[in-house]
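Following up on my earlier message about adenosine-5'-triphosphate. Here are the inputs again, as you asked, copied directly from the submission form:
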Amino acid sequence: MLRIAVPNKGSLSEPATDMLREAGYRQRRDPRELVLVDPANDIEFFFLRPRDIAVYVGSGTVDAGITGRDLLLDSGASAVEHMELGFGGSTFRFAAPADRVTSLAEVAGRRVATSYPVLVGDHLRDRGIEATVIRLDGAVESAVQLGVADVVADVVSTGTTLRGAGLEVFGDPILRSEAVLIRPQSQTAVPAGLEVLTRRLQGVLVARQYVLMDYDVPAHLVEQAVAITPGLESPTVSPLHSGGWSAVRAMVRREDTNRVMDDLYDVGARAILVTSIHACRI
Ligand SMILES: Nc1ncnc2c1ncn2[C@@H]1O[C@H](COP(=O)(O)OP(=O)(O)OP(=O)(O)O)[C@@H](O)[C@H]1O
Ligand SMILES: O=P(O)(O)OC[C@H]1O[C@H](OP(=O)(O)OP(=O)(O)O)[C@H](O)[C@@H]1O
Ligand SMILES: [Mg+2]
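Thanks, got it. Here's what our run produced:
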């Protein structure tokens, strides 16, 4: 039976569970459940702290797990990224009170508060900057105001928390993170069940990122229209019953939907219909 670690709380928990449910796996209803078996899919889910998941995966006691790239790098565990999951996006950045510290070089000799001491320590060392890293469990934005640190390094999503604490980011992002499926470095071959899980999750990603577009276009304009909707591989073109027109079906990126419909209409396409993809295997 395949063993998969899933975040039990925090920002990644609900979107991870939603994605697995969308991929056809049983998921827990009670947030206190720690283990859930899905016998129909021969898979077992372990609900663990997001920060601990890389440790379990690295030790090889589970076959794969969902966590953040930032948490994986900070863990130092022997686990590798297997697949990006398209949610839980964030940047990891330095911040300080406006105008007090404005470049990475100025971090030298100062105190940096963070919940990600390995990630930050590695970043500073790689750039030859000596600073004192102070490890805190969370809410690091208050560390400057409370006099424990001069600079913070933390997850930034909307930036609301930083603004609220009177801090401003400076320097380049330390990391761009998102939720990832990770597997043990020691795993020599990807288990068959993990390949199925991966394909299912890729199906969810495609269903979320693409829509299906159908339209009719005069046959002599098909080439122009198809240039606007090249699809993933190649669009399907079929003749309409009444001569001189073709029907085209292609996948289109969801965010491009309205621009593509406008462009198709301008070329002469009509009866342009957009349908959501419920599920797919590419
Ligand atoms: N707005 C956000 N706030 C916090 N983490 C986010 C956000 N968006 C994405 N993430 C990602 O979520 C992961 C951290 O999860 P979370 O903050 O839930 O863990 P935690 O801080 O260990 O737990 P908790 O906050 O419940 O104590 C990281 O990979 C981080 O990049
Ligand atoms: O840019 P924002 O949208 O404001 O989000 C970023 C904040 O969210 C996270 O905190 P979390 O809620 O996980 O609390 P924690 O600091 O205790 O981990 C993170 O550590 C930042 O504080
Ligand atoms: Mg947190």
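One observation from looking it over: The helical segments are 13-22, 50-59, 69-75, 117-126, 160-164, 192-209, 222-228, 257-267. Hope that helps, and feel free to reply on this thread.
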